[in-house]
User: Which sequence fits this backbone?
């Protein structure tokens, strides 16, 4: 479904108005209440740990500069054993830059 320019303009006017601000506030309150209810019903709530991604790839994309990423790729390419690659991946997953020495 395509959004027409008139609909886009109407939505923008609503967002800028006080009624739009009130609506947004109501939506945020409802979202918080829904999240609280959902979290209260879960027995296995997962806690976010800063710097630790779900996977090594996710942490790699988020936590390192372009130069560090190139260096990590070179470390993996020049690794002498699968254990060394695993050590590098574990460091990356934790959000730590792997050291050169094992």
Assistant:
């Amino acid at each position: 479904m395509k959004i027409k320019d008139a609909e886009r303009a109407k939505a923008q006017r609503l967002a800028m108005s006080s009624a739009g601000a009130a609506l947004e506030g109501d939506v945020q309150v409802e979202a918080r209440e829904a999240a609280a209810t959902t979290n209260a019903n879960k027995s296995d709530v997962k806690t976010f740990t800063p710097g630790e991604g779900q996977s090594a790839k996710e942490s790699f994309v988020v936590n390192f500069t372009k130069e560090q990423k190139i260096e990590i790729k070179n470390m993996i390419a020049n690794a002498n054993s699968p254990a060394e690659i695993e050590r590098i991946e574990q460091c990356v997953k934790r959000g730590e830059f792997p050291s050169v020495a094992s």
Residues 15 and 22 are 10 Å apart (CA to CA). Helices lie at 5-16, 18-41, 56-63, 66-77, 82-94. The chain has five helices and no strands.
